[in-house]
Amino acid sequence: MVSVDHEPWESTDATRLRAAQRGELDARYGCDDHEPGAPPTAETVSVFLVARDAHGTAVGCGGLRFLAPGRAEIKRMYVTQAARGTGVAVAILHALEDEARDAGVRTLVLETGTAQPDAMRFYEREGYRRIDNFGPYLGEPLSVCLARDLPEI
């Protein structure tokens, strides 16, 4: 069983998970310069969630950056290697979608990259579709952008 709850951007576990994500992406892309645009911060990521396993260990995270009325971007979605394939990513994504919906968001967008085929498959399986790159990702050859219109509940 996994729980997903709000956590401060600067918390020890949130910081550790984001650092692990950056390390994994640096290794996949062979450099640390693979994310266009301004890095997300506590000021720009209004919602940050951390997933914990049954023992209370932080095993994943994700956040929302609100872009415009009705539109938000998923940022820093990550699940530890040991927790992959256990439903943690789905739990985080659904919690982010619920948070977005509650905030009046109708469209969620995200950016992943060409060296992350597993992420692309995950999002597409969850109903996201590829879109033209947007904002800071325009013209970026390593960026792959996706979106999903959130159904009303």
Structural key phrases:
153 residues, alpha+beta
Distance between the termini: 24 Å
Share of helical residues: 25-40%
Query: What fraction of the residues are assigned to beta strands by DSSP?
Result: 25-35%
Global Rg: 14 Å
Write down how many β-strands occur, each being a DSSP E stretch of 2 or more residues. 7
The number of helical runs is 3
Taken in chain order, the helices and strands follow as EHEEEHEHEE
Instruction: State the strand order across the main sheet.
Output: 1-2-3-4-5-7-6
- Please tell me the overall pLDDT: 94
Q: What sort of overall outline do the alpha carbons produce when their principal axes are compared?
A: globular
Uncertain spans = none
Q: Could you describe the 3D structure shown?
A:
- By secondary structure, the protein is an alpha+beta fold.
- The chain has helices spanning 12-29, 88-102, 117-125; strands at residues 3-6, 47-52, 58-68, 71-79, 107-113, 129-131, 143-149.
- A 7-stranded mixed β-sheet has the order 1-2-3-4-5-7-6, sandwiched between helices.
- Strand 3 (58-68) and strand 4 form a beta hairpin.
- The model has no long low-confidence stretch (mean pLDDT 94).
